[in-house]
Amino acid sequence: MNRFLRSCLTSPWFLPLVFGLAGLLVWEIGLLVINPDGFVLPRPTEILSELQANWDEISQASRNTGFIIVSSLFGGVILGVVAALIVTRFRSANEMITPLAVAVNAIPIVALAPIFNNWLGLTSPRSNQAVVVLLVFFPVFINTSRGLTNVDPNQIELMRSLASKPWTIIRRVRIPSALPFFFTALKLVSSLCVVGAIVVEYFGGRQDSLGSKITTYAGFTQYDAAWAAVLAGSLMGIALYALASLAERLAMPWATRQS
Amino acid sequence: MPERLRRLLLQVLAAGAALLAISGIYSLYKVIGRALDDGQRDWWFIGTFLPRSTDRDMPPIRDIISEFNKPLREGGPELINLIWDASLFTLREALAGFVLGVIIGMAIAILLLRSRTLEKGTMPYVIASQTVPLIAITPIIVIWGRKNFGFLPWEWQDWMSVSLIAVYLTFFPVAVNGLRGLQSPDPDAKELMDSYAAGWWQTLWRLRLPASLPYLFPAFKIATLASIIGAIVGEISAAQSDGIGYLILDFASKYSTGPERLYASIIGAAVLGLLAAAVITLAEFAILVRRRQATRS
Amino acid sequence: MTETTKDPTSQSQGAVDILDLNKIFLPGNASQVIALTDINLSIAPRSFTTLIGPSGCGKSTLLRLIAGLIEPTEGSVTVNGKTANRARQDRDYGMAFQTASLFDWRTVRKNIELPLELLGWSRADRRKRTEEMLELVQLSEFVNSYPRELSGGMQQRVAIARALAFRPSLLLMDEPFGALDEMTREHMQTELLRMWQETGTTVIFITHSISEAVFLSTQVCVMSPRPGQITAKVDVDLGERTEETRDRDDFFDYIVQVREALRS
Ligand SMILES: Nc1ncnc2c1ncn2[C@@H]1O[C@H](COP(=O)(O)OP(=O)(O)O)[C@@H](O)[C@H]1O
Ligand SMILES: [Mg+2]
């Protein structure tokens, strides 16, 4: 029992759990005390009961938005990695293109949504996917190509001294040293693409998506329901982030394993 | 320095070439599309995977450029002036959000630096905060702002609620990278300060904060873009009608009467983002490069 | 002017007196480390003491105990008649490490001024002292350079100037020349001895190099690991050191003596 208690106390989950519960409690009770009928920021229990009440609608909307999120995440990540692998093969191309990508990344890409809506259809998911793919592509491309070029020259020389072929060097040296950079980007875009997809739904897309549901609820002053839909969105974001972290752990045990 | 100059020149050239290439591809696509359209219409992938090449869907570049100089209404200001004013308005929202976000982010970083317990307990929530699409409920925040900020010495205005969205997106990279930067000095440097019997705040001010700058600048860059996106999207969602975001939404809804205007306003937003990024990059250059400190992201 | 110059000779006892000192990291814990046992050491004012021994024998730990950065588990450390912690509060120490540990964002001048700023010196006083220190380490033309613009040896000289800037009564150095090449290293040794003689500071110096220990010191403390102990103290009397000292027979005799102490 004592042992069990100790392992609970030293678990990395313990402190976050305590802080999380305490935070929820303060939120719940604090609002109950100062603002019992405040409807702009509802209490956690109100949000949960509203989530239950609108479960069918919100879960359907989450599925629709979730499809766009996951498909674009895959598409954007694959495109970003492939582009980085190609561009870093050529030193001068890399020197020109990567800074260009950094510049493009400073453009508010979600603002392109109305153009894509006109191109690919206002209610079609493809226009949303196109914007989210772009949103995902740039951070992944930039970080991966930085990682691929940011290698210890000694390691390359070691591989050369063993008469390794270029592809072997890429596989054994460049890719492993690019992994930390790649996963930094992956974790960033895993939450970015959720927020991005929901925002893009402001401009168009299906009517039963999270973005338009949030707008509709808010428009009809159903704030609790809007918050419930927001909660659904962040749960998806947390799930994707957790998956990205898990993948990072599996791919780079040398960097992430806790002693 | 010539190496750096050569690279800069190369990049400017590349940027120019890219602009030309994009315009070229865009125009070429229109030409080919037009030719194909004359023969047989209704390829299934046109309009689903590729845009139609009509002037309505893809206004000619020449028209977009000349649109900047045209007034919306007879006798009204030219579009470029509208875009300029709207961009400045959005920039103000973003800047207010950025400044407050950086202050809050650094405060969080310093707080978490002081207490390991707090860091372990709250870091997951700092990360989770970014998965909350708060940006989607800006209208609620605007109402909330009107109701709850009456105690402030100045009158609360709706654009300040939009800035709050920018704050929410800005504080995160600053807090995370800031904390890593504050923790970055090596043990020797910390022992050096200890050997001088320097206090916690002295060590913070003279060692940890300067050491965190290389970590902070990448965060500032992310935060700059985040604050601008926050402001643009916040405006759209809150129907805050003075900014560039609202201009884009407005032109998007009146697309059929002037597709060029939408393109022009989006170009305006892109230039706003680029200029902000350029300013922060220059600041980074001025502060870090002379000291030969490499940035860490 | 808040000058904190101390005259070590006025102390009745040694500059550092260590009595029956033990240091255990994480005592009671499963992973506890017995870092030092039964350390007794007396260091005379104005002497040059070297700690030598294999990696992990507790040299750095002993230095940090003397600096008052960590507390002994048992026993006592007295510095200039005070506890080590008190001496630290009184700013009796200058420290230098293997990495020069200069602050990248400060110019050479501002790096040397750092301790003076912490002591609340006026701007004019700081400037004056910095010029003196730069002359001492012969880097006057680099006042406004940033550390990254200097070579390793130059950085280490700036670090020493910083350590000596407020004329601490004790200079503690943890393998300061460890990362330098042999040529620079010998040059730095000569420089350090010159500065030691000019300033009259008590120096405690950690090294892995036997010849460096002998060349520099008036007293070499040989340490052995598991548990960390001082196994021998060798008093070195070579008189005034010059480059010729390195070729002298008695220099080699001392080297043999220290090497044998290290082996046993
Ligand atoms: N803060 C600490 N916590 C636990 N063990 C430590 C700590 N500092 C040093 N040690 C241990 O004490 C021993 C002596 O270390 P150190 O003094 O650094 O050796 P040296 O400087 O002679 O190489 C080593 O076994 C080291 O692992
Ligand atoms: Mg050591």
What would you call the structural class of chain C? alpha/beta
Q: What would the principal axes of the Cα set say about the shape of chain A?
A: flat
- CATH topology label of the largest domain in chain C: Rossmann fold
- Share of β-strand residues of chain C: 15-25%
Number of helices of chain A: 12
CATH class of chain A: Mainly Alpha
Overview features:
heterotrimer, A: 259 residues, mainly alpha, C: 2 domains, 6-stranded mixed beta sheet, 8 helices, binds adenosine-5'-diphosphate, binds magnesium ion
Walkthrough of the structure:
The complex is a heterotrimer of chains A (259), B (297) and C (264). By secondary structure, chain A is mainly α. Chain A has a single domain (57-258), classed as MetI-like fold (Orthogonal Bundle). Chain A has helices at residues 2-10, 14-34, 44-53, 55-87, 91-105, 113-120, 125-149, 153-161, 166-200, 210-219, 223-251, 253-256. In chain A, helix 7 runs antiparallel to helix 9 and helix 10 runs antiparallel to helix 11. The two termini of chain A are 24 Å apart. With 297 residues, chain B is mostly helical. Chain B is globular and about 80 Å long. Chain C has 264 residues and is of the alpha/beta class. Chain C is 35% helix and 23% strand. The longest helix of chain C is centred in the last third of the chain and has 18 residues, at 182-199. Chains A and B meet through helix 2, helix 5, helix 6, helix 9 and helix 10 of A and helix 1, helix 4, helix 5, helix 8 and helix 9 of B. Bound molecules: adenosine-5'-diphosphate and magnesium ion. Adenosine-5'-diphosphate binds next to strand 2 and helix 1 of chain C.
